[in-house]
Write a structure and sequence with these properties.
The protein has three domains: about 55 residues, Orthogonal Bundle (3-methyladenine DNA Glycosylase II, Chain A, domain 3); about 240 residues, TIM Barrel; about 120 residues, 3-Layer(aba) Sandwich (Rossmann fold). By secondary structure, it is an alpha/beta fold. Helix 8 links the parallel strand 8 and strand 9.
Length: about 425
């Protein structure tokens, strides 16, 4: 049975050395009880305590990391639903490519270069799944000339895998996939090359049996494929896997891999996989029109529900502003940002939008909490070096905080401080009439 935070604390050195990254041993113990950290973070825990803490130290879903030039992590989740606490490791989105494709380098390069910005965050794909319908070794060499992203190698041919994995020394790839009839050579290769191994079976009992056999061969890093053929079956089995893992059924405590690329409607299947409960998602090909909504969905689901949804503080350019365009100020609460940005963008009027760090609060809430005041606004204006971008030093405050205008004039001498409307919907008319 898992130990409580206090029980764990009694087994720790209680030195409060802070080397684990937490201010006290008690704080670390609480995180360990919630399965949000690993025991290895404590450098001074005794061997005897390690044995007693083994169950509490291990997360219910093993953390699997695929790495090359970048990393993709899956696992370490501790709840069924994000509102209970939060989800931690966003599922990796992989693009499937074929080893025999004559345009392999071109397609990989295009997908690798894709980057989209969403409220100050840059999103890109996480890796590639290489289907060995041709020379896998040659394909891996080609891919590595254009990208350093993590790879999933899709073949059961142990000879091909051994050769390809030898090219990925120092990396952590994923082998797909071991089944009951062929798991032994694949498990040996996973152990030899320190790769993760996907395990596939058409029932949960068969999956549990197979993971135990593979673990007995010395392979700890595994990923589960429940071999569900329909959306309904996938939802059911993935939910069952998450429930059993959280109940400490260790043989099923691994991340899940999903292949919406094989579904009739790839977009719907991919969205379901992200929500319930895939750690790695393989898409059929590079499709920007599919990737963008999946990135946004993933970000929303994996945002901590106990924290307001925020945008990155900074200067946002709307409708290609010039040095004479007005400067609008708001907080980094996402709804506030979108309300202002969408109204101004829709009007076609150019503007600079300064988003200040108000810990994700709306304008009035942040002002009341002392998180949106003249000092913070002035600090943002100076910190973002706005003066070098504008010639007409004119700032528009939200109407709800008109009281800050005098204080802001003192903080920013030489700037013209205007008080804008209370509602974002009135901004276009205000900009046309009052900012001439």
């Amino acid at each position: 049975m898992a130990l409580s935070g206090i029980q764990i604390y009694k087994l720790l050195p209680q030195t409060n050395c802070k080397e684990c990254g937490f201010p006290t041993c008690l704080a670390f113990a609480m995180k360990l009880a919630a399965k949000q950290v690993e025991l290895s973070a404590c450098p001074y825990v005794s061997d005897e305590s390690k044995k007693q803490l083994a169950e509490s130290a291990a997360p219910p879903i093993r953390l699997i990391t695929l790495k090359a030039g970048s990393e993709v992590k899956a696992g370490n989740e501790v709840v069924m639903f994000r509102h209970e606490k939060t989800f931690y490791n966003k599922p990796g989105l992989f693009i499937r490519v074929k080893a025999s494709d004559p345009d392999l380098a071109k397609k990989v390069a295009a997908a690798d270069a894709y980057k989209v910005n969403y409220v100050g965050m840059d999103f890109s794909i996480d890796g590639f799944a290489v289907e060995a319908d041709g020379d896998l070794t040659s394909a891996v060499k080609t891919i590595r000339t254009v990208t350093k992203r993590p790879l999933i190698l899709m073949t059961k041919d142990a000879t091909l895998l051994d050769s390809a994995l030898s090219l990925l020394a120092g990396e952590s790839a994923l082998i797909y996939a071991a089944e009951s009839s062929d798991y032994e050579p694949l498990a040996d290769l996973a152990k030899k090359h320190k790769a993760a191994l996907a395990v596939k079976a058409d029932s949960l009992d068969a999956l549990a049996d197979l993971t135990q056999k593979i673990q007995a061969k010395g392979v700890e890093d595994m990923v589960l494929d429940s071999a569900a053929a329909t959306l309904s079956a996938s939802l059911t089995r993935n939910t069952q896997l998450r429930k059993l893992a959280l109940k400490n059924v260790r043989s099923l405590g691994y991340p899940i891999i999903a292949f919406p690329c094989d579904a009739k409607d790839e977009g719907i299947a991919a969205a379901q996989a992200i929500a319930k409960y895939a750690g790695f998602v393989v898409l059929s090909e590079f499709k920007p029109e599919l990737l963008y909504p999946l990135f946004v969905l993933r970000e929303n689901i994996y945002t901590d529900p106990q924290k307001p949804i925020q945008v990155q503080p900074g200067i946002y350019e709307i409708n290609a502003p010039n040095p004479e365009s007005p400067v609008l100020v708001t907080t980094n609460f996402s709804i506030t940002y979108f309300s202002v940005a969408n109204e101004v963008e829709g009007s076609g009027l150019p503007a600079w939008l300064v988003v200040t760090d108000a810990e994700g609060m709306s304008v009035l809430t942040a002002w009341a909490a002392g998180k949106f005041d003249a000092e913070r606004i002035a600090k943002a204006i100076k910190g973002f070096d706005l003066a070098s971008k504008v010639g007409k030093k004119q700032i528009v405050l939200p109407g709800h905080v008109a009281v800050l205008s005098g204080e802001l004039e003192e903080e920013l001498p030489g700037w013209d401080i205007r008080v804008g409307p209370r509602e974002a919907v009135d901004l276009p008319a205000f900009m046309k009439q009052a900012l001439n």
